[in-house]
Amino acid sequence: MKRNKAEAYWTVPYLTIWGTQWMADSLLQYIWMADPHGAVRKTLLGVAAALTVLLVVRDRVGRSAASSRQVAAVGIPALAAAALLLVVALSARLGTTALFVPELLRCFLLAAFYVWIGVRLGRELVYLGLWLAALGIVIWSFYLGYAPIILGFSGGASLLACALIFRFWRG
C-alpha cells in the first residue's frame, strides 16, 4: 500500500493546476461583473490546458515502460470521465440541460473517483469523496441555484486537498 501511495505523487502538479483553475472559474462566476463576457475564464482554461500539455510532454520523456502502463491504467478511466463531462458541457452550452447539471455531475463523479481511489490508497481519500458527495446532496436538495459556485469552488479545493494528501504520503 505504501508503494501505491508513493506512486500517486506524479499527479500532484495536475491536481494543483486544475484545482486552482476550477476554484478561479467558480469565483469569476460569482463576481461576474469583473468578467462579464467570460474572457478571463476562457483564458484561465487555456492556460491550465497548456500547462497540462507541457507537463505531459515533459513527463513523457522521463517515464519508463512500467510507469507508462500505470499512467494508462489511471488515464483510461480519466479519459472516459472527461468524455462524459464533455458531452454534458456541450449539451449545457447548447441549452439542452440546466446550468447546474454539469456541476452536479462533475461533483458526484469526482466524489465517486475519490472513494474508488481511496479504497486502494487510503481512507483519507474516501473521507474526501464522502464529504464532496454529502456537499453535493445538500446543494442539490436545498441550494440548487448556488451549485455552480459552491460545488465548483469546493471541487477545486478538493483537488488541492488531494494534492496535499499525496504530498504528505510521499513524505
What sequence of helices (H) and strands (E) makes up the elements? HHHHHHH
Q: Cα-atom Rg, whole angstroms? A: 17 Å
Fraction of helical residues: over 70%
Q: Mean of residue pLDDT? A: 83
From the spread of the alpha carbons, the general shape counts as globular
Low-confidence stretches: none
Domains counted in the coordinates: how many?
1
Beta-strand proportion: under 5%
Number of strands: 0
Q: Based on helices, strands and strand pairing, what is the structural class?
A: mainly alpha
Give the biggest sheet.
Answer: none
SS element count, helices: 7
Distance between the termini: 14 Å
Structural write-up:
By secondary structure, this protein is mainly alpha-helical. The chain has one domain (2-170). It contains seven helices and no strands. The chain has helices at residues 2-7, 12-30, 39-62, 65-93, 101-121, 123-142, 147-170. Helix 5 (101-121) runs parallel beside helix 7 (147-170).
